Amino acid sequence: MTFRTRYTGLIENYRDRLPVSDDTRIISLGEGNTPLIKLNNIPDLLDKKVDLYVKYEGLNPTGSFKDRGMTMAVTKAVEDGAKAIICASTGNTSASAAAYAARAGITAFVLIPDGKIAQGKLAQAMMEGAVILQVKGNFDDGMRLVKEVAKEAPVTIVNSINPYRLQGQKTAAFEIVEELGRAPDFHCLPVGNAGNITAHWIGYSEYACEKGAQATAACAHCNGVCPYATGSIVTTRPKMVGYQASGSAPFLRGEMVDDPETVATAIRIGHPQSWDHAWKVHKESGGWFDECSDEEILAAQKLLAEKEGVFCEPASATSVAGAMRDINSGKIPENSCVVCTLTGHGLKDPDTAIKQSNAPVIAVDAKLEQVKSAILENMTD
Ligand SMILES: *Cc1c(COP(=O)(O)O)cnc(C)c1O
Q1: How far apart are CA 127 and CA 141, in angstroms?
Q2: Low-confidence ranges of the chain (pLDDT < 70)
C-alpha cells in the first residue's frame, strides 16, 4: 500500500515542459520541490508591510539550486553518450556535478579557484569522486580554461552556458507560481554568472500567457505546452531584481570586473557568462540590479538564522539583504508579494558562519548546579 506518491525529481515532475523523451534515462537525486517559507519575524523589523517568502534552495540534494540544472545537464550528456563532464566552479557547481556524475557512472572534472572555496563544497566534490583541478586563479580563469579544453578533449561542459542547465533551473519558478497560485510581484536573487536569474525568467515567462484565457495548447508562446491545459491561470510575471556583492558587481559597473572580491564566494565572479541574457531579463521584467556590501550580506545571513531559523550560505543572503533595503526605501512598494531565492545551504561554509557568530559557548562542569544557573542567567522573556 502506498500512502502518497513518491517524489522522483523535477524532470519527472515537469516532463512535459522539459526537453526529454520517453526513452531518456533520467539521472536524478530527487532535486526540486524545495520549501517556499513565508518569513514571520523579519517582516516585523521592516518599515513597510510586505509578504516576504524565501525559496530555500539549500534543501536540494547537494545543498544548492545547482542540482536543478545538473539533473538536466547530466541526463542530456549521458543521453548524448558523454563519458565525462567538466565545469569551472566557485564550489556548488562542482559539488553538484560530482554527485550527478557519480549517480550516472561517468567522470566529473572540476576546476576550482585556488583557496577561495568553502570547505563543505570541497568536501562534497572529494567524497563524490570528482577529479579536482585547483587552478592558480579565480573562477573566471577556470571558466576560460573549461571552454578552451572542451574543444580539445571529449568532455561536456555543465556550467550554466550549457542550455539544459537553465531548462532545469526554470522549474523553481514553476514551483513558486503553483504554490502561490500567482506570480510574485518581485523576485530577488543573488547574481554571479546570472544563469539563475535568466532561468527563473524563462520559467515565469512560460507560465504567464499573454493570450490569457484564450490560449490553446497549440499556441507557441509557452514552448507548445499551455499552462491553461493544466488549469492554471497566471498572466503576470515578477520584476526580477538581481543583487551582487559590491566587490564583485560587474552589472553595477556596466563592465567586466577583473579582480572580484567578496566573502560570498559563490558569487565571486567578475565575468558573468549570462551577461546579455541578464540585461534582457532586466529590461523585459522592469526590474533592476543593485549591490550589497559584505557587511550587509553577513548581517542578513545572521538575521535569517537568528530570527527565522533558516541557515543559508553568505551568497544566498544577498537576496534578502538587498530586498530588505529596497522594501524600507519603498522601491519595492508596500503590500507587495516578494520572493527571495536562498541559493545554497549554510552548512556549505561553516568557517564563515563560525567566524562571524558571537553566540556564547558556555563551558560548565558536568554538574547540575552549573547547568541550571547557566540556563537561568540566559533566559529571554
Ligand atoms: C551559483 C550560485 C549563485 C549564483 O548563481 P548564478 O546563476 O551564477 O548567477 C548564487 N549563490 C549560490 C549559493 C550559488 O551556488
Answers
A1: 25
A2: 1, 209-233
Q: Is the CB of 194 under 6 A from ligand 1?
A: yes
Q: What are the phi and psi torsion angles at 242 (to 5°)?
A: -110, 125
Sign, CA dihedral 146-147-148-149, equals positive
Are 188 and 241 in contact by the 8 Å Cβ rule? The answer is: yes
Which residue's alpha carbon is at the smallest distance from atom 5 of ligand 1?
A: 192
> What residue owns the CA closest to ligand 1's atom 4?
192
Q: Looking at ligand 1, which residue's alpha carbon is closest to its atom 1?
A: 266
Helix or strand holding residue 38 (H, E): strand 36-38
Q: How far is CA 360 from the centre of its chain?
A: 31
- pTM of the model as a whole: 0.93
Query: Which pLDDT tens digit goes with each residue over 190-244?
Result: 999 999 999 999 999 988 865 555 555 556 555 556 655 555 567 789 999 999 9
Distance 150 CA to ligand 1 centre (A): 22
Q: At what angle do helices 92-104 and 66-79 cross, to 10 degrees?
A: 40
Distance (angstroms) between ligand 1 centre and the Cα of 375 equals 40
In the reported structure, the alpha carbon of residue 93 is separated from the centroid of ligand 1 by a whole-number distance in angstroms of 9
What would the pLDDT profile of 286-324 be if each residue is shown by its tens digit? 999 999 999 999 999 999 999 999 999 999 999 999 999
Please tell me the distance from the alpha carbon of residue 102 to that of residue 104, in angstroms, as a whole number: 5
CA-to-CA dists, residue 253 to 207, 297, 356, angstroms? 32, 19, 29
